[in-house]
Every structure is written in C-alpha cells, then in structure tokens.
Write a structure and sequence with these properties.
CATH architecture of the largest domain: 3-Layer(aba) Sandwich
Strand content: 15-25%
Shape: globular
CATH class of the largest domain: Alpha Beta
Structural class: alpha/beta
Strand order of the largest sheet: 2-1-3-4-5
Radius of gyration: 18 Å
Length: 237
C-alpha cells in the first residue's frame, strides 16, 4: 500500500514540484494550498506524513500544526523559508517532528520523510519488542502506539513515543543525550540539543503532575536523561 502524504504549500510551483517528487518515490499525494481543512482531513484520512509550509495565505502554519496535533499523531515535517532557529524550535514545541529550510535538497527531503514514516511504523515492531511496556503509572501499548498515565490515555507524537519507550526500556539507567539524538533523530537537524530539550519538555507536560519538579523523566545534568523507576519494577508482556 502506498504511503500517503499531505502537502500544505500555498505556492503553486512549489506545491506541484513537491507533489511530483513524492509521487516519483511511490507516495500517494493530497495537496492543500491553504491550512483550512487540513487537521480535519488528517483525522479522517489518516495520512502517513504531513509536509507543512509556515507561510500560508489564510493562517499561520504554526496554527495548522497545533490543530493537527489536537486530532492526530501523524509525523509532521515543516518545510519553510523562515530560517530563524526560533521558528524551528517553535515548530518542534507545537509537535512537529522535523524542520527543513528552503531551499532544500530533494533527496534529503524524501529521506527525512521516509525515515519519519519508518520510525513511526517500527515502534514496537523490532525483534524482541514487547506488546505492553509498563512502569509504575505509565503504560505503553507498543503495537497500538498508545500511552496511558495514571489510567488516563495521553496522545504522544511518534518522536515522543519513541523517546519515552527508549527511556522506559532501561528504567533507572541514564541515557546519554548523544545516544538519544543519534538513535531517535539520527542527527538529522541543525538544532540537535535543543530538539531533545524541546521533546523532553513536551513529554514532561504530558506525564508529570508538576513539570517544575519532575518525578518520572529526570535530567542528569551534563549527561542525559533517565526514567525514574522508583520502587516500581518494569514489566513487559
């Protein structure tokens, strides 16, 4: 089955070029020239990837990203001519999984998109992976890509889910920042450390009772992060 990509780009030439590029690489394409209806389409059509421009005629791309994240965990790759690092960080904070500046290399664009889809589909499907990973009040359904905290389901993006699963697989063990960046992002961004910081902050916002005093995802200053096992044992089945 062909992977489906949504392209959200107002410039007709760029929109057409992106559509042709993805079709040549085996994608089914649905193109949008405005942000209207994109989030609702993500909810109903369940695309495998969204390629999102920030400069849209009817609304800011950040608003579109925010709206998508309310209804879907689809991987989002922002492709924008806005090169400021603050824009990239803002996009990541809203739930985007990758940020690529224009003009971009076509091969890199496709490679990033394919990697995001592959990572999303491979979560929990690696040899030896367990269906359910539970540690204290946090439970992950690896195959269903679902998460619960204190018996309440929380919606995690693919990167958030993968980051949490990586930490939970070795509770109490410090995962170095360099390892997390390499294993989850493949060093595919120019704002590497900030990318990890942003995702940790987003993860804590969904897991912790008090983000100012995290009890689950702990920072080991100058080294990395670890999942706090406390007195609980990790179970996988």
């Amino acid at each position: 089955m062909q992977p489906r990509v949504f392209i959200v780009e107002d410039d007709p030439a760029t929109n057409s070029a992106l559509a042709d590029l993805f079709r040549r690489h085996g994608f089914s394409v649905q193109a949008f020239t405005t942000g209207a209806g994109v989030a609702e389409a993500c909810k109903s059509a369940r695309p495998d990837l969204v390629v999102l421009d920030l400069m849209l005629p009817d609304q800011d791309g950040f608003d579109v990203c925010r709206a998508i994240r309310k209804v879907s965990t689809v991987p989002i790759m922002i492709v924008s001519g806005r090169a400021a690092a603050t824009d990239a960080v803002a996009g990541l904070e809203l739930g985007a999984d990758s940020y690529l500046e224009k003009p971009f290399d076509s091969a890199e664009l496709i490679a990033r998109g394919q990697a995001l889809i592959r990572q999303c589909k491979q979560i929990g499907t690696a040899p030896g992976a367990q269906d359910i990973l539970q540690l204290g009040d946090v439970r992950l359904d690896m195959c269903g890509h679902r998460a619960w905290v204190r018996n309440q389901e929380v919606h995690l993006t693919p990167k958030e889910f993968e980051l949490l699963a990586t930490l939970m697989r070795q509770p109490g063990v410090v995962q170095r920042s360099e390892y997390l960046l390499q294993s989850i992002w493949g060093y595919d961004t120019n704002i590497r450390t900030r990318t990890l910081d942003v995702h940790i902050a987003r993860l804590r916002a969904k897991l912790e009772l008090d983000t100012s005093s995290p009890q689950l995802v702990l920072t080991i200053r100058g080294v990395g992060y670890r999942f706090n096992a406390g007195e609980q044992e990790c179970s996988a089945y």
